[in-house]
Structure formats: C-alpha cells, structure tokens
Design brief:
Blueprint lengths: L8 H7 L11 E5 L2 E4 L4 E4 L2 H4 L8 H11 L12 H13 L4 E5 L2 H20 L5 E5 L8 H6 L3 H4 L9 E4 L4 H7 L4 E6 L13 H13 L3 E5 L23 E4 L10 E5 L1 H4 L15 H14 L2 H25 L2 E7 L2 E6 L7 H10 L2 E2 L1 E2 L4 E4 L7 H19 L2
C-alpha cells in the first residue's frame, strides 16, 4: 500500500536551495483568477505568476491543447522541426515586425539569445571592437550570467566573479546620458518598453524615439525585452505596438505559454542570418507541448475582445486603487499601463512593499512587489470584473490592516 506523503512548507527549508523565501501558503488548485491552498482557503489572484498566467489558471482552451498534444508528440531534438512550433512561429511572424523566430524556454534564455545575436551580427558585419551593449539602471533581463550582468541591478550580479565586459548602464529616460554614451562601438541597446522589476516605470515617448534614432545613427540594434510586457499585457499584443518605435530584436516569454515554460526571440531576416547552423541552440526550445499551448494563447489573446478588455480592466483597477488611496493615503501614484500596474508607496511607507504583499495574503489576495517601494499588480488579462471588485475589497482590507497596525 502506498502511503501518501504530507507535504509542508517546512520541507522547503529541508530539501530546497534557499534562494527563495516562499510564503507559508501552498496553492494546490487554480481556476480562472482564483486559487485554493492545501487548507481550502481561497485567494483572488492579482499576481498572475508574475505576469505569466495571462488567461488565468487552467483555461479550458489551454488545457485542451496540452491534453491533445500530450497524446501525440512530447519532444524531438532540433534535428527535426514539429508542427506546433511551425504554426506558432508563423503566427508570431504574421502578427509582428519579425521575419524569423527562435524558441527557448524562459525569458532569460530568450534574452541570452538576443544579446548573443546582437554581438555576432556586429562582429560579422563590422568586425572587432563594436561590442558595447547599453542597458539601463534598475532593468531586469534574467538570471543567466550574461543577462544578469546586462540587467541594471548589481545586487543580482555581484559576488559571482568577473562579469561579462562591454556593458554600460545609464538612467532610464535620460536622453542626455544616452547621447553621451552612444558611439560607433555600440552594438546594441537593450530596453524594456516599460520597466517591470525596476518599479513599473514607463518610457517617455521622446526617449524611445531617441533610442531608435541614435541606434540608426551608430548602426546599433535595438532589443526590446518584452518578457513581461508582451502578449497583451499593455493592451497591445506587444508593447512596441503602442509606441512609434519598432525594435530590431524582441524577446517574449512569461505569458506566451500561459504558465507552460515557453519563450521566443523575434527578429528580421537580415539579422537572423547571423545565427548560422550550430551558432546557438536549445534542447527544449520549440518543444511540441509548449508550442501547442502557445498557439492556443496567441489565438485567444490576439483578438480585439481581449486586447480592448485589458484597457477596460486597467481603468477598473486604477479607479479602485485610487479610491482606496483616497481613504488610506499610502501611494504617491499609480503607474504603469494595461494590466501591469504599480502602486508607488509614499514617504510614510517607504521600503514596505513586502508588508503589503503579506497583508494581502492574510486577506485572501495574491499581489506582487516591484522593489521595496512598489506594490505590483499583473492579473489575468481576462479576469472577471467581479473578481476585480472582490480583489480590491480584499486589498483595501490589507491596506487597512497596515495603516491601523
């Protein structure tokens, strides 16, 4: 007879590497924008697995796609291609500026591929010496050693030995710094079209235009990291579509798999040609299971109904958060776009974003932080209005808990 193992939060400390500090809650079931833990406690999900579960938990179309593909073909090496990968790549090319797609498993891997491609393109076309990558303070691009070095948060990259060279960080939205830093040695500018981990910071339109202008002037590539902003999060399929700037390379992950690990790098024919056979690869990139789910995600998200719905839901969140703030005075502003929003804590509550996250959990709500001073919200793109209302009610209770403590 098999004895069922009782799994607890304490076991995390016994068997897991301690680079995470998870809450005591262990979710076991999700449906739509609601999640239940081991004790049956219900939570409203305003976190979306950090902007991943864009269609909520266990969306029927995604479950069906996974089940059907699971009975056909799970994995091949990239010695062969597969139908789900071909279909998804075609959809992405048809829907964006891109001509070519490279599949990976995570945002970090997609960004690693983008950075390697930018360096290889510059080397092939212009020779040695054109290798500078410009990135931005507070940026986040992943946890590989290359991407964490390009990311603008030294806390994540210090202490691992010598870092990859040729990377320069400047302040986000600082045109003067950009002009002073760009040169003929610049091969790429990597930028989030809305900074996520750095605090939900939107770009000034003139800043993005200057990025594109200077990149063209110095024959550098523009890489948009759309790992968090992509797949409908801002109300456009990709955030660049809501700007006047088109990148040369775009990375997408998180929401593209709806919770199944999947990522992609998109680029043009001219640039893609520099990843010749054997130049780069991925064992699982383009996995049939992942791509089958990705096809279902894109089919649903890339519709006027969902994308327009994101903008409508954004207003509901803004109105609700502003009403709470009028009562309790904890935020200096609500910023962001679409359903990637941040409540910026005012001077009285500086450094306490995690307290708001924990208080939310106490009140049956899942939220996020974006640094020590921003409470982040990244719910399902199709979260029902009733769940928004109930979640905001629970968030108000969490805010009241902190304010009156």
């Amino acid at each position: 007879m098999t004895v069922e193992m009782k799994l607890t939060r304490e076991q995390f400390d016994e068997v897991m590497v301690p680079n995470y500090a998870p809450s005591p809650v262990i979710p076991v079931k999700g449906e739509g924008s609601r999640v239940w833990d081991q004790q049956g406690t219900e939570f409203i999900d305003f976190a979306g697995g950090i902007a991943v579960t864009a269609l909520g938990h266990c969306h029927p179309a995604l479950v069906t796609a996974l089940k059907e593909q699971g009975e056909k073909l799970w994995h091949l090496s990239n010695v062969m291609t597969n139908e789900p990968a071909l279909a998804l790549a075609t959809k992405l090319v048809n829907a964006t500026f891109a001509d070519k797609v490279f599949f990976a498993n995570s945002g970090a891997e997609a960004n690693e591929a983008a950075l390697k491609l930018a360096r290889r393109y510059a080397f092939d076309k212009y020779g040695e010496g054109k290798d500078q990558i410009i990135a931005f303070d507070k940026a986040f691009h992943g946890r590989t050693f290359f991407t964490v070095s390009v990311g603008g948060q030294a806390t994540y990259s210090d202490g691992f030995g010598p870092k990859p060279q040729g990377i320069t960080h400047i302040p986000y939205n600082d045109i003067a710094a950009l002009e002073a830093t760009m040169s003929d040695s610049t091969c790429a500018i990597m930028i989030e079209p809305l900074q996520g981990e750095g605090g939900i910071i939107s770009p000034e339109p003139e800043f993005l235009s200057k990025v594109r202008e200077l990149a063209d002037k110095y024959n550098a590539l523009v890489i948009f990291d759309e790992v968090q902003t992509g797949v409908g999060r801002t109300g456009d399929l990709y955030a660049y579509m809501g700007t006047d700037v088109t990148p040369d390379i775009l990375t997408t992950a998180k929401a593209i798999g709806g919770g199944f690990p999947l990522a992609a790098m998109l680029t043009t024919n001219e640039i893609a040609a520099h990843f010749k056979v054997g130049t780069h690869g991925s064992t699982y990139g383009g996995n049939p299971l992942a791509c089958a789910v990705g096809n279902a995600v894109i089919d649903i998200v890339n519709t006027p109904e969902v994308l327009d719905g994101v903008k409508q839901r954004e207003q509901l969140f803004r109105d609700g958060l502003n009403a709470i703030n009028d009562k309790y005075h904890v935020f200096s502003q609500i910023r962001g776009k679409g359903l990637l929003l941040g409540g910026v804590l005012n001077e009285k509550y500086q450094g306490r974003s995690r307290d708001f996250l924990l208080a939310s959990i106490d009140n049956g709500l899942m939220t996020l932080v974006a640094g020590a001073n921003v409470v982040r919200f990244a719910p399902s793109l199709i979260i029902p209005e009733a769940d928004i209302a109930e979640g905001l009610k629970r968030f108000e209770a969490a805010v009241a808990q902190i304010v009156t403590a």
